Amino acid sequence: MSSVSVMPMHSEPVSSERSPILKRAVHCPGDRSVDANGIVGTSRVLQEAMQQARMVAPTDSTVLIHGETGTGKELFAGLIHELSRRRGGPFIRLNCAAIPEGLLESELFGHEKGAFTSAIAQRMGRFEAADRGTLFLDEIGDVPLSLQPKLLRVLQEREFERLGSAHTVRVDVRVIAATNRDLSELVAEQMFRADLFYRLNVFPITLPPLRDRREDIPCLVRHLVRNAVARMQRPIRTIPDEAMQTLIDHDWPGNVRELQNVIERAVILSEDCALRVPRLLRERGSRSGGSTLREKERDFILEVLDETNWIIGGSSGAARRLGLPRTTLISKMKRLGILHRDSARLSAAARASLPVSQGQPNFQRPSCA
Fold first, then answer.
1. Which CATH number fits domain 44-206: 3.40.50.1100, 2.30.42.10, 3.40.50.300, 3.40.1360.10?
2. What's residue 133's pLDDT?
């Protein structure tokens, strides 16, 4: 069996004859420079996006990064910050979808003591914390309409008032926003203000999904395997060709984040110093020819739910692993027909064959601990 070698990350000595072969096998031009900020790949579509990031970085222009979940939007925002004149200042992150609507204004702009029931002290918001630096607003499409005028004002005038205060605070902040939603469609549906969209969309960058840059997968796999081996002290030495091909052929609806999770699981499960692709991924790969994107997304969510014992929320839950808010994951599960542990594995054909008189099964909420 031919295989691709990976540099061992444990303390076991390596013979001098094998060492050069391992080093050559590990070398990957996409995993090459510090200023790449952890972004790995040499594909044309990825390099075009990185070139755009490098072009806009020295300016103070607002950047809007488009991309599916798991494509590396935060990494690109970090790259822009590191290549900007603000690199000595703070890089502050906020996932707008992860904050309850009633608390988002305070999170962004801060509040005064007594501004609301639990406001027991004055609190600085993310805009103040990012002064003279960069503020990365992920999932910007989830900002409620009621808060969008205040966000527009701070982008245009660089000033705002804390919640519960009449004092105007001025800041010098560069904003990078990101979304996996089509903001122009949200504007058409009157769910997002057109003027805010135009103010954010000064310099748009679109990140390619992993399925559109499959040539980067071998470099990414080696990079992720080395990181996982170093972190978990597992003696992985080789990546068999068939394992690598399975990883290349998979469509990765969760993109690099899904690949990272699969590699971590593979490193844990692997024996004999060779990386083994998880069984469920192999099975999905063997039948992927007839699968729709919806079916692949459903299978991926089911796999993660199985791994977390159907726990959705919390630090070890499925939502955290998928990089989604808990409510978003529950909504996706309902949309994809994932009802509960026992009925989730029913195929679409099996579900369609159930008598109509049986009605719709009740949604049994998994544990959110």
1. 3.40.50.300
2. 98
